[in-house]
Automatic annotation (TrEMBL):
The lineage of its organism: Eukaryota, Viridiplantae, Streptophyta, Embryophyta, Tracheophyta. GO terms for biological process: photosynthesis. This is Cytochrome f. Component of the cytochrome b6-f complex, which mediates electron transfer between photosystem II (PSII) and photosystem I (PSI), cyclic electron flow around PSI, and state transitions. Its main location: plastid. GO terms for molecular function: electron transfer activity; heme binding; iron ion binding. Belongs to the cytochrome f family. It comes from Castanea mollissima. It is found in: Plastid thylakoid membrane.
C-alpha cells in the first residue's frame, strides 16, 4: 500500500501551517505538484456550503511501496479554514450534498482546532477530487466572527513521502554515497531486495552504505565514486528540460516563483489568492515580447534624442 498519512502531521505539529505559510506535510513530501480548490465567492452566516478540492496527477503513475514493490498512489489533504468555520454537522447536510461527499471521512486536526480538517489516506484513483461540507459562523452569535473576506488554505499530497517525521529516509527517494572511493562489493541482503554497498576509501578503510528495497542501483562493482554521488536512481522520476536563460525571463520567473505554489506537496489559497500558479507558456511568451518591444521602443527614443 502507498500511504499518505496526515496523522504524521497531527502527531508532530500543533499547527499544520508554519509562519512562512508552508504546510508541514512538505517536511516529508519533497516533490511539488499543484492542487486546486473551489469555494463560493461569498456565503451567508450560519450556512452550509461546499468546497471542492482537487488533487490532480497522472493516474497511470506507480510508485515504490514500503516493501519495495510498485503500487498506486494514495492521497491525503489538510484544509485550513478561518476561525469559526467548521465541518458541517451531519444533521445540517442535505441529501444532495451527502451524495456528493460520499463515504469520505473528514476529521478535525485536533480537539482545539475544529477549523482545520484532515482527510486520508484514500485511493488516489477514486478520490483525486472530493467535496467537503462546511459551515460558516454566525457573527450575531460569535463575537470573533465578522463580515470579512477570509483566506482558506488547502494542502495535499499524493503518495508516500521521501522523509519520515524522525528525519530518516524512506525508500521513496534517492540514495547517495556517504564517502568517495571504489565500489568493491555489492551484496543483496534478505529476501526483500535490500543492498549493502561496500566502498573502499583511498586509505584502505571500507564503508558500507545500506540501500532499502525499492530504488534501482545506478552503480556497479569497480566503479569509482565521488562523495554524494547517487548510488540509486530517483524512484520519483526525473524529466530533462531545457531552460532559455535571459535577463527578462529570469526576472519574470523570479517574480512568478515568489507567488507560485508553496511547499512541496501542493498549496492553494482561496478566496484571497496568495499563491498564483506560474503563467502559462503562451502568456509568458506574450509578456516577453511585450518587454522586448518596450526595450526596443526605449532604445529607439534614446537614439532619436541623441540625433542618431
Amino acid at each position: 500500500r502507498a500511504e499518505a498519512y496526515p496523522i504524521f502531521a497531527q502527531q508532530n505539529y500543533a499547527n499544520p501551517r508554519e509562519a512562512n505559510g508552508r504546510i508541514v506535510c512538505a517536511n516529508c513530501h519533497l516533490a511539488q505538484k499543484p492542487v486546486e480548490i473551489e469555494v463560493p465567492q461569498a456565503v451567508l452566516p450560519n450556512t452550509v456550503f461546499e468546497a471542492v478540492i482537487k488533487i490532480p496527477y497522472d493516474q497511470q503513475i506507480t510508485q515504490v511501496l514500503g516493501n519495495g514493490k510498485k503500487g498506486g498512489l494514495n492521497v491525503g489533504a489538510v484544509l485550513i479554514l478561518p476561525e469559526g468555520f467548521s465541518l458541517a454537522p451531519t444533521d445540517r447536510i442535505s441529501e444532495e450534498l451527502k451524495n456528493k461527499v460520499g463515504n469520505v471521512f473528514y476529521q478535525p486536526y485536533s480537539n482545539d482546532k475544529s477549523n482545520i480538517l484532515v482527510v486520508g489516506p484514500l485511493p488516489g484513483k477514486k478520490y483525486s477530487e472530493m467535496v467537503v461540507p462546511l459551515l460558516s459562523p454566525d457573527p450575531a452569535k460569535s463575537k470573533s466572527a465578522s463580515y470579512l473576506k477570509y483566506p482558506i488554505y488547502f494542502g495535499a499530497n499524493r503518495g508516500r513521502g521521501q522523509v519520515y517525521p524522525d528525519g530518516s529516509k524512506s525508500n521513496n527517494t534517492i540514495y547517495n554515497a556517504s564517502t568517495p572511493g571504489k565500489v568493491v562489493k555489492i551484496e543483496k541482503v534478505g529476501k526483500k531486495g535490500n543492498f549493502e554497498i561496500t566502498i573502499e576509501k583511498t586509505n584502505g578503510e571500507q564503508v558500507v552504505d545500506k540501500i532499502p528495497a525499492g530504488p534501482d542501483l545506478a552503480i556497479s562493482e569497480g566503479d569509482t565514486l565521488q562523495a554524494d554521488q547517487p548510488l540509486t536512481n530517483n524512484p520519483n522520476g526525473t524529466q530533462p528540460a531545457a531552460c532559455l536563460q535571459t535577463r527578462s525571463l529570469a526576472q519574470l520567473c523570479c517574480a512568478a516563483a515568489c507567488r507560485g505554489p508553496v511547499g512541496t506537496m501542493g498549496l492553494r489559497t482561496k478566496p484571497t489568492v496568495l499563491c498564483a500558479a506560474l503563467p502559462k507558456a503562451s502568456l509568458l511568451l506574450q509578456t516577453l515580447r511585450a518587454v522586448a518591444n518596450l526595450r526596443f521602443a526605449a532604445a529607439s527614443r534614446s537614439k532619436q534624442a541623441r540625433g542618431l
